[in-house]
Task: inverse folding
């Protein structure tokens, strides 16, 4: 299955996503620090990154840009508790393939992850 990272400033939120996706057989790493997540991306080039829009030092969009520089193949799903058309457009423009609204809906998350991973296989 896929190698996935989750970056959320709230560890519990990341752990919830980790549990959902590990049940599907994915390998999931949870990060709360942007620098750690970006270092991991540069080294491991995960299949998928799930990023919260609101982080500690950077915005999710800034992290998205950095991920795309370090690992262009990594697919990205953005998470937001405050969806706006502007953030959605900006995320997609910078290379996010999808975004989920918090609180996380398990079925929606699973579906979007499957779609993102299918797209990364060139499908």
Result:
């Amino acid at each position: 299955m896929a190698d996935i990272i989750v970056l959320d400033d709230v560890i519990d939120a990341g752990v919830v996503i980790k549990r959902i996706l590990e049940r599907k057989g994915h390998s999931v790493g949870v990060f709360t620090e942007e620098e750690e997540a970006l270092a991991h991306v540069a080294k491991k080039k995960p299949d998928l990154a799930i990023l919260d829009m609101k982080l500690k030092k950077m915005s999710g969009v800034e992290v998205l840009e950095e991920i795309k520089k370090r690992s262009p193949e990594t697919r990205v799903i953005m998470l937001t508790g405050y969806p706006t058309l502007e953030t959605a457009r900006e995320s997609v423009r910078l290379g996010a393939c999808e975004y989920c609204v918090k609180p996380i809906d398990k079925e929606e998350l699973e579906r979007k992850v499957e779609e993102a991973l299918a797209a990364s296989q060139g499908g």
Notes: The first helix runs from residue 11 to 23.
